[in-house]
Amino acid sequence: MQTTSKTFKILFFTLLVFNVILLSALSFMLLNDRSGFMDAERINIKDKTGKNRIVISNMDNIPPPIINGTIYQRAVRPAGLIFYDKNGDERGGLAITDNETTNLNALSFDYQNADAVGLLVQDNKNDNYFKAGLVINDKDLSGKPGHNTNRINLITENGNAALIMNDANEIPRIILQVDSLGNPSIQMFNSNGSLNWKQ
C-alpha cells in the first residue's frame, strides 16, 4: 500500500515537473517570438449581444453593407476595416481597393443611411490620372439607403486644386481653384449650372 502510494507520488511529481517545464518552454517561445505576426483573413470584433462593431477583412471576405438591418450588395469589394453601430448597421470604414486599372483608397464616416464625410485617394495604373480629397455630404432626409447630397468637395485632381460648393441639387455654385499652372480663379454659377461670374 505504501509502495503504491510512493510510486503514485513519484509519478505525479514527475508529471507535474514535466508540465511546468513544458509550459515554461512554451511561454518562453511565445514571449520571445519577435515577429509579432498574426495571420487572418477576417477578424470580427463583436459586442456582448454578438453584433459586429468592427470588422477587419481581406477583399474576399468583406461583408456586404447593412443599413437599417437590410443587407445590400457592395459596389466594389475592397479590403479594409468597417465600423458598425450598436444595431449592427454600417457606419463607415477604411476601404483599400486595387483592381487592374485603379488604386482607390477611402476613409468614410456615415450617417444612418449613407456616406457623410469621406477622404479619398485615387491614382490610375494605365495613365497619369490622380485625385485626392475631402468630400462632405448632406444627409438625405428621405431615408433612402445609400442616398445623400454632395455639398462640399476639397479636391486636387491632376494638379488642379479646388474647393467646390454645391447647392441642395448637387449643382456647383462656387468654385475656388488654383490650376496646375498656378493660376487662381473664382467662379460662380446659377441654379442651372451656367457660369454667371468669374474672376
UniProtKB/TrEMBL annotation:
Keyword terms: Membrane, Transmembrane, Transmembrane helix
Q: Which superkingdom heads the taxonomic lineage of this protein's source?
A: Bacteria
Sequence intervals crossing the membrane = 12-31
Protein name as annotated: Uncharacterized protein
